[in-house]
Design goal:
This protein is of the alpha/beta class. It contains 16 helices and 20 strands. It is globular. It binds flavin-adenine dinucleotide. Flavin-adenine dinucleotide binds next to helix 1, strand 15, strand 19 and helix 16.
C-alpha cells in the first residue's frame, strides 16, 4: 500500500532519474507520476537515427568522472551499452589566426606551441607568483582568469571553454558557480599551477591521474545507439508511472498537499519535484510562492544551434586526428566550435563519412539562432571549409535549434540560490530538480535528482 504520493514535473533526465531513484529507494511505499508535456521524453536529450547517422540533438555524452552517474547507469542495467569516446579523439584544438593549434596537456609542449604569444606564455607561467584574492566577493570567470593567467590566455583558452560548456559569456558567468574547483584551487593552494602540482603529487601517491583546473579529468561517454538509448531504457523501466503528453499548468497549495492541474484534470500530491526549466517552473509555482517564482524567473538562459553535417571522407582534406576545436570570440566567427563526432563515436556515422557537430549562438551571439536552418548550415559550412579543407557540399545535414538552451550562472547566482533554498525550506515539500541550479551538465543534474530523493522522508 502506497503511503505517499509524489508528482514529478518534466520528463527530461532530471525528472526521469528522480523517478528511478524514488522507485529504487521506496518501491511500493511511494506512488509517483512523471508528467511530461511533449509526445516524447528526454527534454534536451533527443535523437535522429537516419541514413546510418546517429544525431544527438542536445547533449552527446557525459564525462565518466562522476561515480554516481556510473552507478546510476549500472543500477538501471545499462552498463553493457556504455560507449566511451574513441582513443583517437584525445587531441583537442583551438582555432587562432587561421589555423588549429593543439592544446597539449604536457606543460612543456603546450608552452612551446606558439598558440599564445611569448608574452602571453610568460604571463601564464607567472601565475605562480600572483597572490590569491583576499576577499570573498563574487568574480566573473574572465576577471579571475585575466587576474591569474593574463588577459591573452583568458581570451584564447578560457573564453572558448566557457562557450563550449555553457554557451556562455565568460565576462558574465560567476566563477564560483561555474567552476568551483578553480575557486578552491586559489583558496586552498594559493593558485592554479601550485594546486595542479600539489594535486598531481597527491594523485600519483594514490596511483591515479589528476585533472585540469576546470575539474578532474574524464572521458566523454555515451551509449550504443546514442545518448537517447538511456531515455528509451528509462521509459521502459518507468512505463507505469509516466503521464505524457501531459502539460502541467499550475501547482496550487492545499491543506493536504499540492494540487497539480494537467490536461483538464487535477490531482493532489504530498510532494512535488519540479524539473522543468526554471523560467517554466517560475510560472508553475507562481501560486505557491511569489518570491520563489520571481527568483526562478531571474535565471537567464542562452540559446544555441547545433549543426550536424556529414561529408564523404574524400571531401575532407585535413586529417581528423582528435576531438575537434573551439574558437575564441575574438576570432570573430559565428561558429563557437566543432567536434568530430565520427572520430569520437565512430558508430555514429556510416563507414567512409565524417560527421561534424558544430555549435553556434550562445550568450554573445543569441540572434543567430533566429536564422533559418538552411542559413545556419550554410554559415557552418562556409566557416569550417577553410579550417578542415572541405570540398563541396555536405552529404547529410541536420540542424537543431535550442532557444533558451542552457541556464547561465551569472554573477549573483550563488546568492540567488541561497534565497531559493531558504524559500524552499520555508514552503516545504517542493523540490527543484534540473540543471538551473548546481551544475548544467548531465552528471550534476542526475546528482541533484539523487540528492532530492535522498532528502525525502516518508515516515
Ligand atoms: C545543445 C546542448 C548540448 C548539451 N551538451 C551537453 C553535453 O554534452 N554533456 C552534458 O553533460 N550536458 C550537456 N547539455 C546539458 C544537458 O542537456 C542538461 O544537463 C540536461 O539534459 C538537463 O535535463 P533536465 O531534465 O534538467 O531539463 P530538460 O531536458 O530541459 O527537461 C525538462 C522537461 O520538462 C518538460 N516540460 C516543460 N514544461 C512542462 C510542463 N508544463 N509540464 C510537463 N512537462 C514540462 C520539457 O518538455 C522537458 O522534457 C547540453 C544541453 C544542450 C541544450
Amino acid at each position: 500500500m502506497s503511503e505517499r504520493k509524489i508528482a514529478i514535473i518534466g520528463g527530461g533526465i532530471a525528472g526521469l532519474s528522480a523517478g528511478f531513484f524514488i522507485k529504487d529507494r521506496f518501491g511500493e511505499q511511494v506512488d509517483f507520476t512523471v508528467f511530461e508535456k511533449e509526445k516524447r521524453l528526454g527534454g534536451t536529450i533527443g535523437i535522429t537515427r537516419e541514413d546510418g547517422f546517429i544525431i544527438d540533438w542536445g547533449p552527446n555524452g557525459f564525462l565518466d568522472r562522476e561515480p554516481l552517474t556510473l552507478e546510476f547507469v549500472d543500477r538501471i542495467g545499462l552498463s553493457d551499452k556504455l560507449y566511451p569516446s574513441d582513443r583517437k579523439s584525445e587531441r583537442r584544438f583551438i582555432y587562432r589566426n587561421g589555423k588549429l593549434w593543439e592544446i597539449n596537456p604536457k606543460p612543456q609542449r603546450f608552452l612551446g606551441s606558439g598558440l599564445l604569444s611569448l608574452r602571453g606564455r610568460l604571463r601564464l607561467v607567472g601565475e605562480m607568483f600572483i597572490p590569491p584574492k583576499k576577499d570573498d566577493s563574487s568574480e566573473s570567470i574572465h576577471d579571475f582568469a585575466s587576474r591569474r593567467i593574463g588577459r591573452e590566455a583568458a581570451e584564447i583558452l578560457i573564453d572558448p571553454m566557457v562557450s563550449g560548456i555553457f554557451g556562455g559569456d565568460s565576462h558574465e558567468l560567476e566563477l564560483g558557480s561555474c567552476f568551483p574547483v578553480m575557486e578552491e584551487m586559489e583558496k586552498n593552494y594559493g593558485g592554479l599551477i601550485r594546486a595542479m602540482i600539489k594535486r598531481k603529487k597527491e594523485a600519483r601517491a594514490r596511483g591515479k591521474t589528476s585533472g585540469g583546473p576546470a575539474g578532474p579529468s574524464g572521458h566523454l561517454t555515451s551509449f550504443k545507439g546514442g545518448l537517447y538509448t538511456m531515455i528509451e531504457h528509462l521509459e521502459s523501466l518507468l512505463k507505469e508511472q509516466l503521464e505524457y503528453p501531459s502539460e502541467v499548468k499550475l501547482i496550487a497549495r492545499e491543506d493536504d498537499g499540492y494540487k497539480i492541474d494537467f490536461n483538464q484534470s487535477q490531482e493532489t500530491f504530498d510532494e512535488v519535484i519540479v524539473s522543468t526549466p526554471s523560467y517554466i517552473s517560475s510560472g508553475l509555482l507562481s501560486g505557491v510562492d511569489q518570491e520563489l517564482s520571481q527568483l526562478l524567473s531571474e535565471i537567464p538562459y542562452s540559446s544555441l544551434a547545433v549543426v550536424c553535417q556529414g561529408y564523404k571522407l574524400d571531401k575532407v582534406d585535413r586529417p581528423l586526428d582528435g576531438f575537434g576545436f573551439l574558437i575564441p570570440h575574438n576570432q570573430n566567427m559565428d561558429v563557437l566550435g566543432s567536434i568530430w563526432t565520427s572520430v569520437i563515436f565512430p558508430e555514429q556515422a556510416p563507414d567512409g563519412y565524417a560527421l561534424f557537430r558544430t555549435m553556434m549562438g550562445g550568450a554573445k551571439n543569441e540572434e543567430i539562432v533566429k536564422e533559418s536552418k538552411e542559413s545556419l548550415a550554410r554559415i557552418a559550412r562556409k566557416e569550417l571549409a577553410p579550417i578542415l579543407g572541405l570540398k563541396g557540399e555536405p552529404d547529410y545535414q541536420k540542424v537543431i535549434i535550442w532557444e533558451r538552451a542552457i541556464p547561465q550562472y551569472v554573477i549573483g547566482h550563488r546568492k540567488r540560490l541561497e534565497r531559493i533554498n531558504r524559500r524552499l525550506k520555508e514552503i516545504g515539500n517542493i523540490h527543484l530538480a534540473g540543471n538551473a541550479f548546481t551544475g548544467i551538465g548531465l552528471n550534476d543534474t542526475i546528482k541533484r535528482s539523487y540528492n532530492i530523493v535522498e532528502s525525502i522522508r516518508i515516515d
